[in-house]
Amino acid sequence: MRLLRRLFLAAAVPLLGLAAFQNWGAVGPDPFAPGQDRRLARLMLQSNPHLIAHKLRHVRESGPFDVLIFGDNATLALGQAELASHGRVFSMAVPGSSLGGSASLAQSLAAAGALAPTLVVLVENFEHFTQQVQMLPLGQRWPDMARLLAGSFDDPRVPGRDWLRMAARLARQEATLWLLSLSPRTVAEHVSMVFAGLFPVFDPGDQLVWGRFKADGAAGPMTAARPGLPPVPADLPDQPQVLASFIAHDLHRLATLPGRPRVVVAELPLEPAAAAHFNAKARPAPMALRKAFVEACAREGLECALAPVLGTSGEPNDWTDYYHPPASAIAPYVDGLLRGKS
Fold it and tell me: pTM (2 decimals)?
C-alpha cells in the first residue's frame, strides 16, 4: 500500500506541476513588444489560453488603446493599418472565439481597468454561427464561468433547459482545455515561448493557415489562398447547439460593461456568391438567430449591424473561402460602422 502511494505521488506531483506551468498564463517577455519577432512568429501555434494571456497582458501593460477588436479567426485580418483613422487599435481576436468568448474577454479587461473607449465585436455570420465560450487562461476562466452561470441563472431570458445545456458545455470545454494543456505539442510550444532566450525559436513556416501575428494583434492574410472564386458551400445543417437565449445574455454582458464604452457588434459578411446562395434559401435557424440578435441589441441599446453583401456574385475577388473575409472586404464595413454609417 505504501509503495502504491509513493508511485501515485511520484506520478501526480510532476503532472500537477506541469499543469500549473501550462495554465499559469503569460510567462516571459511580451511577444507584441518591439524586438520580440521570434516570439511573435511562434504565437499562432500557441494554445488559445496562452495566446489570450499574452494579448490580455499586452493591453493591460501597453495601453491605453482607442479601439479594441474582438472576434474569431475571421476577424484576424483587421488591425491598426485598416482602422488607423480611429486612433490606436489592437486586435483581441482569437481563432475559435465567439460572441460569448468576446464578452468574457471584454469583462476580463474591464476588471483590470484596461478597456478601450470603443469596442468592435465581430461575430460569425449566422449561416455559420458557433457558440464556443471558454478559452480564457485559468486564472480568469474559472471566475468567468462562475459569473456566466450565476448571471444567466438569474436572467429571465435564459430558460432552465438552456442553462443546464450551457453548464454541461462549460464542463466539457474545461475538460478539453486541461487535456489540451497537457498534450506534448502544446507543452513544447509553450516552452518555446517561455524559454526563447535559451532555445531556438524556429519560424513556423507552412505550419500556419494564417500569416503570422503582427504587433497590433492582427494576423494574416490566410496562407491557403486559391485562385478565383471559392466554391459555393453545400447547405449547412441547422445548428441546434446555438442557444439564442445566450446570444441575448452575452449582448447584455457587453451592454453592462463598467464605464459603458461604446460597443459596436456586427455580423461578418459571407463571400458574395455564398451570400447570394444563402439569401435565396432563407433557412429557418439562421433567420431565428438573426431575429434574436436584432431584438436583443435593440433591448440593450447596442449599436448592431447585420452583414451586408460586399461585392457581386460571380465577380473575381480575393476571398479564400466563403466565411473568412479578407481585410480589404471588412475594413470599409467596420470603418463605416465606427463613423456611424450603417
Answer: 0.86
